[in-house]
Amino acid sequence: MRRVLLRAARGAGMGAVLLFFGFPILWMLLTSLKERIYLYQPGRWLFPPTLDNYMAALVKYGILDYVRNSAIVATGNTVLSLAVGVTAAYGLSRFAFRGREAVALGILLARLFPTITLVIPFFVLAFLLRLLDTHILLILIYLTFNVPFVVWAMRAYFEDIPKEIEEAALVDGCTRFTAFTRCILPAARPGLFATGVMCFILAWNEFNYALFLTSRAAKTVPTAIAFFRTERGILWGEVSALGVIAILPVLVIAAVAHNVLLRGFSLEGGQQ
Amino acid sequence: MGGSDYEFWVSVRRSVAYALLVTGGSLVLGMGVALLLHKTIRGRAAVTLIVIMPLAISHAIGGLMWKLMYNVEFGILNYVLESVFGLKVNWLSDATALYAVAVVGIWMAAPFVALFFLAGLQSLPRAPFEAARVEGASAWQLFRHLTLPMLRPVILVVTLFTIIDALRSFGAIYLLTEGGPGVATLVLPLYMYRVGFGYSSVLGKGAAIAFVLILLTMALAAVLVRLSRRPREA
Fold this sequence. Notes:
The structure holds two protein chains of two kinds. By secondary structure, chain A is mostly helical.
């Protein structure tokens, strides 16, 4: 009896969770398929779907170019952030040296600034370096918020992994580096997945820098929202279509990363 | 000067209230979701993907979607309320706007918390749990005395970043209410935007507000960092 109740409670909890997190996205999908007249009839679940909003987003506003730019920037930035941040996190978690906490805090400091305050200095720098409106500029600037995040998140995960694991590996003839890549990184896979996906998402959705530092060649998806807030009001259908187009690549990346990094992980039941 | 000083202190209070609501709500909800997902084996990948969705959407677009759902006349929330209870709520009015905005903040932040807690739960060693279970520990005791202490580093880092991002959040609130009605949702970044980039732009004062915001964040970060470093140093 108690078992049944517990199972029912868990089912209800799961249902509530899926409703809260999933419904707004479902609503966005439905809105994107509605003609304008159906927008003002929220209770109408059955309506003739239209792809007009997607056609407008793709053809009239050329959203695919934005998606391509976002993909280049977010991928490049995630790879670079992980390469820099994960190694730094390992150093900060495993080696005791003077000023270690100061270094960690200094890295975090970069992330405390509201991005809107840094737009102007970055604009001047980019202008002097002739990097305005390029992918590489956004890839580099996004390091300012993603590297601190990777360092602090991965450091916490590394500290959860017992030191004995790599000590055993060192005794067995591994170098520091191979102990890191063969023993520590695999043990930290769930954290690596969560951190990598988060980096990609933050870079994919960044708005302020992208808006001010790009003009044509490197404009990213979030900046396209400006098209759809008009003086006549918000174009709900088109905005929703943009939202669906913008979310798809992220979900694909998350699913692929999940498969690559976490396949079979639940079966192993965590580290032994 | 007196009038705008009043607005400044209001916005400090709004920021603190918003950050507390979002951080508290996200931590509790995120931990609940992570525990649920940790126990679920079948369909976990699919559920995880649905839970991650609010993270995957840009704050601007997510904010607009909630604005559509909150709409008094043609929003889905009021449609459901009206057909079930026969009443309509003006969600973004003076009295409820801050909470309505905080719900959106939680919707966007809780998946991040859940994702990281789940990753933490998955890499915990199993042996202590099995030992405690053999000793007859209850599920609550396991959670309170094993899970929470062992997740401590991850919990503190996640709390740190949730607070930082709650204090910095701008896009969703801007699109939902622009800080209004009046000053109901005027958190510091929006006050800064009003002062620095509004129609009577005072860039210097905007920068000063940004500096106050950074100090506030640093103070909170310092407390959390101290908490997170203490047990390791001892």
